[in-house]
UniProtKB/TrEMBL annotation:
It comes from the Bacteria. This is Acyl-CoA synthetase. Gene3D superfamilies: 3.30.300.30, N-terminal domain of ligase-like. Residues 63-421 form the AMP-dependent synthetase/ligase domain. SUPFAM superfamilies: Acetyl-CoA synthetase-like. InterPro entries: AMP-bd_C, AMP-bd_C_sf, AMP-binding_CS, AMP-dep_synth/lig_dom, ANL_N_sf, ATP-dep_AMP-bd_enzyme.
Length: 554
């Protein structure tokens, strides 16, 4: 409840309201309400009233207006809005016969495709809490999550059978997707077999349910991930407005989805896509050439991806000039990984000024956005705050620092998390804003945000602040280097030093000394990596493209 006597709260409330209105206009300008009969619009509205802006509500709403429109293209073919709704409803009804209700907890461990979309779309019919699990999680992490959060059901792709928590009492495992040769000694039912195996209870779906949350797991690469609890979205126009307006998105657009659906970007865009009646084109396992093939075949309007994948896509496209037509692409959206300046310039040269980049976190979701003009002016920028959110760079005293000064990025908007589930983790907040854990600076001239790196990843070498990520970006520019990742390690003399893992591609000779010389010629001396590990194998990355430090080898 707003305190009307508090001027700060009044100002924030008015700012949020203006952002929502501006965002709402941007969404309506997509042509969302054009076409359709009054009866279809009424049925669509009723679905949103009943289920809210959940995947279920948006799927029901879309089916009421364009039932035969394709909603999903995946490795197994195409699904229309009506077909996906039918399968989601059936899944919910059979779950109900097995006692699943709004108090239940269901996990999804699945790559992009119907194996993910069906159980997520079924959620709203029963109101259960849904956990979107990272496919890169270890066996121990999955076991700990299932036990700590008392999962009742787990929908999982068969490729993950070897690490499923089979010893957790009361957990039912269902194969959401089955690959060839995976069911030799496993007796988990496929989702089709589950549909044919109702339990003893009634299959009638409740007329009204209280919606549980959507839980995303923090992308930490060690320990038990934090369970980040989000409420079902409330049509957050002020948050999604900037990319919708800057990209000039049209209702019914075709989107190539490289981003993982279990990740914040993939989940968020999936929700927006159903809101706008879009078609999602995706693949289970990233293949840069297949992305280009899908863009060409389905005449995709947009590409939703991440820097590490865009880099590979660009390389394949440049190596095959004219092979794939990408003239239909009106925008490319990046999030999850910061783009290097070279990557931004390369994408702009190949595709034009249609690139945008979102900045946020699992906890805060989208908090800033850089549109095509922002990246054209400054390829390293994270852009401006979303329209109805707060974003400030704070010093150690918890007060905002002056533009141009480095501090910790804090933010909050209507899509921020409700909190962490369980008693193990507590959110770090200042003045109601979440600490995003990144160092940042506001450009004093443009007012745009620049993200410098994780607060705990900055190292001090010889009294100088060094961001290993900036050294990585530089090394990636070297001829003969395919990829690079730098970390800070302990040092007896200088306390800390830079260590570089460099992937060579064989196109030019790269030596350890050459790497050091290149850094010395371009950065300050303390940034020179004394340890250089040259390798031909790709860096170990998780499903969203982040390097898994524990898997780095010397």
């Amino acid at each position: 409840m707003i305190n009307v006597f508090d001027s700060t709260q009044r100002q924030l409330f008015l700012s949020d309201a203006k952002g929502m209105l501006r965002g709402g206009k941007a969404v309506l300008d997509t042509g969302l309400l054009k076409g359709g009969t009054p009866a279809e619009h009424l049925a669509s509205a009723k679905a949103l009233v009943k289920y809210g802006a959940s995947m279920t509500g948006l799927l029901e709403s879309g089916t009421a207006r364009y039932p035969e429109r394709t909603v999903l293209v995946d490795d197994d073919g195409e699904l229309t809005y009506r077909e996906l709704r039918t399968q989601a409803r059936l899944t919910a009804r059979i779950l109900a016969t097995h006692g699943i209700n709004e108090k239940s907890r269901i996990g999804i461990l699945a790559r992009n495709g119907r194996g993910f979309m069906i159980p997520l779309s079924a959620k709203g019919y029963l109101g259960n809490t849904i956990f979107l699990l990272n496919v890169g999680a270890s066996k121990q992490q999955l076991h700990d999550i299932a036990v700590e959060h008392e999962l009742d059901v787990l929908f999982a792709d068969s490729e993950f059978d070897a690490k499923l928590p089979t010893d957790v009492e009361g957990l039912t495992i269902i194969h959401a997707w089955v690959g060839e040769g995976y069911r030799t000694d496993i007796d988990y039912p496929t989702i089709e077999e589950f549909w044919a195996s109702p339990g003893p209870e009634d299959d009638t779906l409740p007329k009204k349910v209280h919606q549980g949350g959507v839980v995303l797991m923090s992308s930490g690469t060690s320990g038990t991930p934090k369970a980040v609890n989000h409420s079902e979205p409330l049509l957050p126009f002020g948050v999604i407005g900037p990319p919708v307006e800057m990209f000039d998105v049209s209702a019914g657009a075709v989107l190539q989805m490289t981003a993982s659906m279990f990740h914040v970007l993939g989940w968020g865009v999936s929700v927006i896509a159903l809101l706008a009646g879009c078609q999602l084109v995706t693949q289970r396992v990233f293949d840069p050439e297949n992305v280009l093939r899908q863009v060409d075949k389905y005449k995709c309007d947009g590409i939703i991806s991440s820097a590490v994948f865009l880099k590979d896509q660009l390389a394949v496209d440049l190596a095959n000039p004219g092979k794939y037509d990408h003239s239909s692409v009106k925008f490319i959206m990046n999030a999850g990984n910061a783009m290097s300046e070279d990557l931004v310039l390369g994408l702009e040269k190949q595709y034009g000024y249609i690139l945008g980049s979102g900045y946020g976190s699992t906890e805060g979701l989208l908090v800033a956005f850089a549109g095509p003009e922002d990246l054209k002016a400054d390829p390293t920028t994270a852009g401006y705050p979303v329209w109805n959110g707060r974003l400030e760079v704070l010093g150690e005293d918890g007060k905002p620092v002056a533009p141009g000064e480095v501090g910790i990025i804090h933010a909050r908007n209507v899509m921020a998390m409700e909190g962490y589930l369980g008693d193990r983790d507590v959110a770090e907040e200042t003045d109601g804003m979440l600490n995003l854990g990144d160092k940042g600076v506001i450009d004093p001239e443009s007012g745009r945000l620049r993200v410098l790196g994780r607060d705990n990843e900055m190292i001090i070498v010889g009294g100088e602040n060094i961001w290993p990520s900036s050294v990585s970006d530089l090394i990636c520019r070297m001829e003969g280097v395919a990829d690079a990742y730098c970390v800070g390690v302990e040092d007896e003399r200088t306390f800390q030093r830079v260590k570089a893992y460099v992937v060579v591609d064989g196109s030019a000779e790269v030596t350890e000394d050459a790497v050091r010389t290149y850094v010395e010629d371009n950065l300050i001396v303390p940034a020179i990596p004394r340890d250089v590990v040259l390798q031909t194998e790709a860096l170990p990355r998780n499903a969203i493209g982040k390097v898994v430090k524990r898997d780095l080898t010397d």
